[in-house]
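Example record for the data management plan.
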Amino acid sequence: MTVAVIRFGGSNCDRDARRALEHLGIDAEIVWHADGLPADSDGVVVPGGFSYGDYLRAGAMAARAPIMDEVREAVADGTPMLGICNGAQIGCEAGLTPGAFTTNQSARFQCEPVHVRVENAATPWTAAYDEGDVIELPIAHGEGRFEIHDDRLQQLKATDRVLFRYCEPDGEVTAAANPNGSTDNVAGVLGTDDHVAVLMPHPERATLPDLGATDGQGVLRAFV
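Corresponding structural encoding:
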C-alpha cells in the first residue's frame, strides 16, 4: 500500500506523518497539492499544520483546493483517508465528515498530551484497540473545538461514528479532561463510511519509540 500524504502551503506535519507510516512498514509519499493525487494511491493522509495560514477559517481554503475533489472521488471508491489536526479541519470543511472545528474555549493555542477513550473499536482506525481503551496522544491546535448540533451528535452516537472522546487517565469522561471545549468531549469522528476518519490529536507523534510514546500506532495501522 502507498499512502499519499498531502502537503499544502503551511502544512508542517507531513514529514512526521510519512516517517511514522514508514516506521510501521507502510510506503508513503508526500504529495504537493497542486500535483494532484497519484493514481496509485491506496490511502490518503491530510496532515496537520496551518494550511494557507488558517485564513478565513482553519482548513477552509485547503478544502477547496482541486486535490480535495480527487480525494472525495477516491474516498467514494473506498480509499481510506485520515485527517489529523489541520487535516481534520480540512476534512470537515470538505464535507467528508460532519461537524466543524472552531476556536478553543481557552482562546489560545494548546500543545499538551491528552487522554482519549476509544468509543468504537470496530473500525480500521481502532481495530488495534478495545472499546474503552484509554490512549495518550499529543494535541497542538488553536481551533480544535469540535462543534455539532445536538440532533446530529445524537445521530453520530446512534450510528457509532464517534471514534475518540477526551477523558481522564482512568477513562472517565469529564469537563476537566476536555482541553478545548469540544461538544461531548469528541476528539475524533468517522465519515459516512468507516474508512474515513478525522481527529484532532496527533497519532503520528505517538508512533516512534524514540519519541517515548507509541499509543498512536494503532490508528496508523489502518493503512497496513
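Summary line stored alongside the record: The CA atoms of residues 45 and 129 lie 20 Å apart.
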